[in-house]
Amino acid sequence: MSDLDLRAEKLDAADELAALRDRFTLDDGVYLDGNSLGALPAHVPDRVADVVRRQWGELRIRSWDESGWWTAPERIGDRIAPLVGAGPGQIVVGDSTSVNVFKALVAAVRMAGDGRDELLVDATTFPTDGYIAESAARLTGRTLRAVTPAEVPDALSERTAAVLLNHVDYRTGRLHDLPALTAEVHARGALAVWDLCHSAGALPVGLDEHGVDLAIGCTYKYLNGGPGSPAYLYVRGDLQDRFDSPLPGWNSHAEPFGMDPVYTPAPGALRGRVGTPDILSLLALEAALEVWDGVSVAAVRAKSLALTDFFLECVRAYTEPGRVECVTPERHAERGSQIALRCPDAGEVMKRLIARGVVGDFRRPDVLRFGFTPLYVGFRDAERAARVLGEELR
Ligand SMILES: Cc1ncc(COP(=O)(O)O)c(C=O)c1O
């Protein structure tokens, strides 16, 4: 056994989260793509079968009340809340991330008031956020400016209505300074909207602590909700009365069954709802979130950093110098839960890795992404992935 093999074995033996792996359905490969689609928690299929067979098949319409379908968006929001540092009553689950970006941005511009005519968006963002921000700006008569997170402080002015930022960059894995950037945005009187897709479930977010105004995130990555599972929207408690949704559907009406032709928004987080919730996906997500019972986000973060440190050490040991360039910051304060390596033939290299059971992904033009999901990835996985990568890069 090599030195790194032995170290991996010892690190796995000392890992307090290691037992959680058995709660997931995995094969004997190495799955490093949980930052794209989280693995399946093993109990979810039976729970979904119960929702379909009994709740839908037998109880039918009664399930809206008796199986808690109607209140699922807020209930599951409260289940996600502690994972992102939010108190109860501020998160609602439903619709896609893209739709929630739209709701949050338009509502933020409306809250900021007429005098503020500019919207800032992260220039390095996952494309959907940029597309939606462009449309939100056009619809609300604001100008959109794309700037990198580092440029945000200088770009802010009394014209800025809102700023849309990513907590962790989807391509490089860079973690942005949410507390400092939120404080800068607030100092100029604007609203901070954060996309948490690549941070929720991987590291502490601290939404309440840092006074974030609005946030959105998906649930199919580190929260393991399943393909296309619904996203969530956070509206800080003291802003909820001013949250003026651009999609005021009947589910967010104060009296949804009053069938009133005039819209009166409901109080609280459920103002973020739109139409009939996606019950099958929602309840699969609710079941998936049970794996978090008793798990601290701080422990997940500590393991994530140890895993990514160890993976980088193994990549350096197994790969010729200069063959790949790491684009994820070395500094822990700037690192999310993935390692992104650049090499010219990244697309072909990833195909070969996947054929050998090491599943990461490729992002154009030249990035190999390896996501580390501490609930089910271990140190031996990290060592094996780096070893196979080193062999394929030779
Ligand atoms: C940062 C970020 N925002 C948004 C999305 C996707 O949005 P949606 O859930 O609407 O597909 C992704 C998907 O990977 C993402 O990484």
Strand order of the largest sheet: 4-10-9-8-7-5-6
Counting DSSP H or I runs of 4 or more residues, the number of helices is 12
Fraction of residues in β-strands: 5-15%
> Span between N and C termini?
21 Å
Uncertain segments of ≥5 residues (pLDDT<50)? none
Say which molecules are bound, naming each kind only once: pyridoxal-5'-phosphate
Give the biggest beta sheet. Answer: 7 strands, mixed
The helix/strand order is: HEEEHHHEHEHEHEHEEEHHEEHEEEH
SSE class = alpha/beta
Task: List its salient traits.
single chain; 7-stranded mixed beta sheet; alpha/beta; binds pyridoxal-5'-phosphate; 12 helices; 394 residues; 4-stranded antiparallel beta sheet; 35% helix
Summarize the structure.
With 394 residues, the chain is of the alpha/beta class. It has helices at residues 3-13, 44-56, 63-66, 72-80, 97-112, 127-140, 152-155, 178-187, 279-288, 297-318, 346-355, 379-393; strands at residues 24-25, 30-31, 40-41, 91-93, 118-122, 143-147, 160-166, 191-195, 214-217, 232-235, 325-326, 338-342, 358-359, 361-363, 367-371. Helix content is 35%, strand content 14%.
Question: How do the helices and strands line up, and which of them pair or pack?
Answer:
Elements: H1 3-13, E1 24-25, E2 30-31, E3 40-41, H2 44-56, H3 63-66, H4 72-80, E4 91-93, H5 97-112, E5 118-122, H6 127-140, E6 143-147, H7 152-155, E7 160-166, H8 178-187, E8 191-195, E9 214-217, E10 232-235, H9 279-288, H10 297-318, E11 325-326, E12 338-342, H11 346-355, E13 358-359, E14 361-363, E15 367-371, H12 379-393
Parallel strand pairs: 2-13, 5-6, 5-7, 7-8, 8-9
Antiparallel strand pairs: 1-3, 4-10, 9-10, 11-12, 12-15, 14-15
Helix pairs in contact: 1-12, 2-9, 4-9, 5-6, 10-12
This protein binds pyridoxal-5'-phosphate.
